[in-house]
Amino acid sequence: MFEKEIEATCLEFKAPSLQALCKYKRNTLPTAYFYILQFTPQWLQVRDGYGVKGIVDSGISTVPRAYIQPPAEQINKNNATICEIPPIDLSKLDGPEHDRVVNQIVRAAETLGFFQVVNHGVPIELLDSLKQTAHNFFGLPAERKAVYRKEVSPSPLVKYGTSFVPEKERALEWKDYISMAYTNDDEALQQWPVECRDDALQYLKTSHQMVTKLLEALLGNLGVELDNSNIDAFIGKKMVNMNFYPTCPNPELTVGVGRHSDMGTLTILLQDGIGGLYVKVPEDSDMKNKGEWVEIPPIPGAIVINVGDMLQIWSNGKYKSAEHRVRTTSTKSRVSIPIFVTPKATQKIAPFPQVVEKDGVARYKEFVFADYMNSFFGNAHDGERKSHVAKLPRHLLSPNQHATSFSLSSTSPSL
Ligand SMILES: O=C(O)CCC(=O)C(=O)O
Questions:
Q1: What distance in Å separates the CA atoms of residue 134 and residue 155, rounded to the nearest whole number?
Q2: CA dist., res. 101 & res. 95, Å (int)
Q3: What atom in ligand 1 is closest to the CA of residue 296?
Q4: What average pLDDT does range 110-129 have in this prediction?
Q5: In a domain, 104, yes or no
Q6: Helix, strand, coil proportions of the chain in percent (round to 5)?
Q7: pLDDT at 2
Q8: CB of 277 closer than 6 A to ligand 1?
Q9: DSSP type of residue 190
Q10: Which of 17, 179, 200, 225 is the 20 to 30 A CA-CA neighbour of 185?
Q11: Which of ligand 1's atoms lies nearest the C-alpha of 177?
Q12: Structural contact between residues 135 and 342, judged by C-beta atoms closer than 8 angstroms
């Protein structure tokens, strides 16, 4: 593949072959391919701020080779079943049905790790407005979006890009995104793109109570009480993304997002009506269709919630941070707007002692969240379950090994 480009790149670096280029640049093959990709006119266009949307708008009739996934990663729409789990009504948490709703939340986290919620407290008009805002942002001229490219963004909080880690991926994802990290209201209002900031900030703020209630339920079930003194250990950082999946001439060959699990505590996801979000039923779940991909159907007014790797680790594997991926379509562009809720970078993470005590074994070793994040963003979406990075070989574990050493403290006393 890329014969001409390989030749041009090798020439540029005065290397006689691709293998020699890898050796010379001390690169792995995917990184070498990334260099090569940079020489293709289409990639230059994507990189310069046009995004995948730019190449679609230019009128292509087949996907460029760089976006063709290996057969194992291609998504066969006909094989997937729809997830039939009804949405959970969060307004009932405040009434006599509180315990039943908590059980629904816990059961969903323990089985698929994905569920949908309604009556969640985020205004429906805001959800509609967010989707329109995402379309408006990605519809801007390339030069207005390009100012937020990682290399040139005026703010460390804002990043506009394409795919996940293009320099590490053998095949690119069919997606553009804008990512806005939250520090405080003032910085968000000053630094987030003016076209998205009001809706994105409102979304973040109006979803806070829902996040707290969900966590109270999930942590309470593990014997951990959520209060002001420990809340930052779980949700100390938040980031709002807007994802844009342009129409694709060959949806069967591409992915919008490749399979991955989310690294944080919880993800709050607004999807539009197009569909295409698939979740793999965890192999260690007690659902009957283990290992199968199920589609999370769009439900008007609902928000999708999923368990992240940290919650899986704190729960010692009880709650599932499930692999998921997104298919592309040829008919309509799709938007989704996730809020990634994570601990602070300095947070120490390990299974809760009370859970370890019950289980008789700690399934994960302690680490600092920043190290996990670095590994997450340093790897392509290739299906490797990142929570396994922290998994201890069983023979190294003695019962209750971590039961006494874990605390919800940060490595930095000032946090
Ligand atoms: O677009 C979606 O439905 C999911 C997005 C996603 O998985 C991500 O942004 O990590």
A1: 19
A2: 10
A3: 3
A4: 98
A5: yes
A6: 40, 20, 45
A7: 54
A8: yes
A9: H
A10: 225
A11: 9
A12: no
Structural domain includes residue 35: no
Would 345 be classed as within a structural domain?
A: yes
Read off the CATH number of the domain in which 390 is found.
2.60.120.330
Tell the residue number behind the tokens 């005065």, with chain if given: 14
In the chain, how many domains are there? 1
Could you tell me the distance, in angstroms and rounded to a whole number, from the CA of residue 277 to the centre of ligand 1?
7
Sheet containing 303-307: which strands, arranged edge to edge?
A: 88-89, 114-118, 303-307, 266-271, 334-342, 237-245, 176-182, 158-162
Residue for token pair 């990184």:
31
- Report whether 137 contacts 198 (CB < 8 A): no
Q: Say if residues 102 and 92 touch (Cβ distance below 8 Å).
A: no
Which structural domain, as residue segments, surrounds residue 74?
Answer: 70-396
Cβ atoms 331, 245 nearer than 8 A? no
The protein residue whose alpha carbon is closest to atom 10 in ligand 1 is 262
The answer to whether position 52 is within a domain reads: no
Looking at residue 409, what is its pLDDT?
Answer: 37
Atom of ligand 1 nearest to the CA of 325: 7
- pLDDT band for 58, please (50, 70, 90 cuts): confident
Please give the structure tokens belonging to residue 203.
């979304």
Task: Return d(Cα 356, Cα 223) in angstroms, integer.
Answer: 11
By three-state DSSP, how is residue 293 classified?
A: strand
Query: What's the 325 CA to ligand 1 centre distance in angstroms?
Result: 7
